[in-house]
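Re-running the complex after MR caught last week's input typo. The corrected sequence lines follow. Everything else is unchanged.
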Amino acid sequence: MLQILIQGLLLSGLYSLIAMGFMLIFSVGRVLNLAYGTYLMFGGYVYFYVSQMLGMPKLVGVAMAGVMGVLMGIAKFKLLVKPLKGDHVAVEISTLILAVVLQAGVVLIFGDSSKILLPIVPGVTYIAGASVTYNILSATIASYAILAILYLFVRKTHTGRAMMAVSMDPKGTAISGIDSDRINMITWGISGLLGAVAGVFFASYTQLSPHMWVAPLILSVAVVIVGGIGSIVGTLVVAHIIGFMEVIVVAWFAPELRGVFTMLLIITVLIIRPRGLFGREEL
Amino acid sequence: MTNALEIKNLVKRFGGLTATDDLSFDIEQGESIGLIGPNGAGKTTVFSLVMGEHRQTSGTITLYGEEISKLGTSSRIRHGVSRTYQVPRPFAEMSVVENIRVGLMPDSIWQMIAQGPNREREIELALSVGFDEADLQRTPAELSMGDLRKLEMARTMATGPKLMLLDEVFAGLTVAEIAQIAELIQQMRKDGMTFLIVSHDLKALEPLIDRTIAINYGRMIADGSFEDVIANEAVRSSYLGTA
Amino acid sequence: MGLRWYHFALWAAFIAFMALLPELVSKGTLRTIIFANFLAVFAISWDVLSGRTGYISFGHPFLIGIGAYTSAILTKRYGFEIEVAIPIAVLMTMLGGLIVLLPALRIKGSYFALVTLAFMELMYQLVQVIRPDLTGGTRGMSGIPTLTRGALNGYYLSVTLMLCVAISMWLLMKTRVGTALSAIGMNEESVRGSGLSVTKLKMFAFLTAAAVAGLGGAFYVHYLGSVAPRALFDINFLFTIIVAALIGGSSTIIGPVIGAFFLTFLLEGLRPYLPGAERYFIYGGIALLLYMYQPKGLIEIFTQGWTRLRSRWTT
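Corrected-run output:
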């Protein structure tokens, strides 16, 4: 029981971080970024390049991954979303194409084979009889810390509150003098940052590969459908539900079934409450 | 005789806001009613409740003796009520006749496939609201605001309503266009159409209506002839914003 | 929008050209065209639903997969004749699509896209774990009975399928149903305000798309003789279908066909110059630039070019 609790928390922290960046863009910009998973892929590869190929300190690697994520997010906003005038269909399609291009780009630079990341923090500890690597433990703590900072940023700063305002009523905020273009750009940057840092952790859980962007994208999609848009707390809760569900399914049933249960959850929510558990009612 | 529309104790709440508050009124067949009130009085909400675009919190709506309060929008339209919108909503990449074609379609996939469009009727409707032959193949991007309202009228008429709800029909129109739309409405009244019309342009509205209903905060404040309602103290103060 | 004599003349010319093509090109090119034909069928199916109504489906591999797996399982595991298995596969695709995606019809815009994407992944996982003795699990199935042998026969079969689908969808979309579906894409509220049941129309679009996808999937599996989950329920496959429809020209029938041929030949054409991973990079890059340049696709680029040319002629 305790093992499940610990493993569930470890997985859910990472899942929350992954889903948060995706939800922010959907909530503030009202568009789906289907290239979201490529932030994770990029973050992972940048870290790999900086700290394992160039041999720089690991923290520099994580920081570089974060910076690249921000730059990528802003570039996507400037080069894709702005020229397409936020037309949500066009953004969905072009980000999908972009994801495939970026995947090919990674194959081009790093090759098609998977890479193993060395643990960011080496070592193992035992909690309640279960072995937990320091790597995963520190990644989880870092994830929760980042989420806490994000929450404070959205609640306490002017820019953060403006983000929430844009997400609730884009037209109204335009009238009240908030530059929604600037807010959108900042949101894309934050989304890229969250994705890229989550990518470093995610890659150290599993491994680096040019296909690693798909799974986090599907996870984020699931969290947004079940949770609905616009709520940070809702995203956290649902990421934990899915994280714990996976751990429980793996422990009690069979590892292959974990995705199936997530999908059953999606279908149930769609039938009972189509706007998601924490979604706002759109008038 | 049966009334065209009977609204009884209609209430609609959006969260804490009561947009329609215990509203009741009847419209006789062939009658034309003006629905007036200040901005935010709840006129458009009444329209969307009658059309089923929003569901009432309580109360009933009866159309020609049949309760429609629980039906969906498209089946209410087949029961003979149809509306226009403050902001016209045409199909942007279709010509004038194609826009009207959608309004004329039967709600049966099989009939849509098996029967071709009724081209004469499409053109007849387009001409009847005042389009020229040259306008028929134009797309909404090439039309003026007045033309867009005409198109909206034509598509609404195409659904074959007995009762039409017109929302701010004169907004954004030139004097000539207002005269044109007014003439169209008069012609349709002669042909027996029943109207419920919302307009801020009281001068243009007056000749088109038999009776006036004024509401504020979703409540009925006056019902009677245009002169009486306009002279009513509550109506006057509501327009001045002191009620 | 009506039917004109030159429409039929153009179709006749297109059919004649496709019939004569094997005389003009090599066997290798024929094999490429076979893939283009199947891709065209999938792209047409996608466009009937998403191109018209604006409800973007990311779940088309899910539909194609139901068709492919049903027909493969029926013929290989239960010894059905292919002629019997394919119609059953089409029905199963429609049914499967209906049951699972019915809740998705209640939701709008981007949510629909999200849900269909999730279902594609669900299908990928289900196929591997539920009755792997039937589906072949992760490795898929091979040795599925095929309809024909040889490039030439495969070519004629796929061309016939593609043309039948293209022409029947073209005729269907020329009727008022086609107009109504496009109207949903432009303004759903106004369609409802015209007294039409939007749900019924969307369901019709969905079932039609599912039938075509199932048909294409079933024929495809009996051409390949094998099926593997990762090749089918894959974002890259999804990408190719959607991009074919959009780059060719959405909301038309010939557009997705042109798009399918363009993409297939672009990928093949790059092979001699860029044998490695660069090929997919350039291929995707070209697709992205084309889409950003003209979201309405090659058809629109041709039409605009033609109009410009004609106006220069007359002045």
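None of the earlier attempt is carried over here. The mean pLDDT of chain C is 88. Residues 13 and 150 of chain C are 26 Å apart (CA to CA).
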